[in-house]
Design goal:
By secondary structure, the chain is α/β, with parallel strands linked by helices. It has helices at about 5, 25-30, 35-55, 75-90, 90-95, 115-125, 140-160, 170-175, 220-235, 240-245, and strands spanning about 15-20, 60-65, 100-105, 135-140, 185-190, 210. Strands 3-4-2-1-5-6 form a six-stranded parallel β-sheet, with helices on both faces. Helix 6 (about 115-125) links the parallel strand 3 (about 100-105) and strand 4.
Amino acid sequence: MSLIEQIDKSRLPEHIAIIMDGNGRWARLHGENRIFGHQNGVSAVRATSEACAELGVKYLTLYAFSTENWARPQYEVDALMELLVATIRNEMSTLMENNIRLRSIGDIASLPAKCHQELLEAMEETKNNSGLTLILALNYSSRWELTEAIRKIASAVKADQLDPRSINEAVVTGFLETAAFPDPELMIRTSGEQRLSNYLLWQLAYAELFFTPVLWPDFDKETLYQAILDFQKRERRFGRTSEQVNVK
C-alpha cells in the first residue's frame, strides 16, 4: 500500500507549519552557491502546496524569511527578494488551478517595495479561493510578533479600550499575526536541525514536531506523507491522561 493510501483523511492535521531548512547545504553538495539551493527549493514549495491541497489540509504556513535573515550577505538577501517576486508571479497559475488562497504573516510593509506590491496583488487575486490557505511567514519572527502584540495590547489598555483584568490567552491570540488562523497541529523541519528558530513559539505550544534529515530542495510529497502518518500515530492528550483521551 502506498503512503498516501495509508493516510486517514478524517484525521488530517488542519494546519501544518514548515521550517524550510537546508537550501545552502543542498547547494554545496551540488557544488553550487547558496542561491542555487534557494532556487531549487521553489519546486519543493510547489509540491508541498499541491500535496496539501490534494489531501484536504486547510492551512499550510511556510517560514520563508525571518527577521534575522536580513543579517545574511547582501547578495543573498537581494537574490532571495528577487526570487520571491519571481516565484509569486510564476506560481499564480498553480495557486489558481489548485484553489489556493495566499496569505502572509510578518512585517511585510518593510519588505522591498516590489516584493510588497507583488505579494499584495497575489493575495488580492487569490482571496476568493476556498481550498488550502497558504501562509508565507515573511520578515517574521515570533519574538517580533509577541513584542508587537504586547505593544498593541498596552495601547488598547492606555486608550481604555481594554480592561487589563480581561486579558487572557484568547485576547493575546487575537493580537497575533495569526489571529485569523488555527494553531498548527504539525510542525515539520527539514535538514536534521531540531529547534524552532523563533518560529510560531506561541502557536506551536501543542503542535506535534517532526524532524527529517531531508534537505528542503529534496522534500517531496512522499516525505510529507511520512510526516502526516507519523502525526496520526501520536496520542494528543493536551494535559489529559490516555484513559481520558480514549474514552469512547
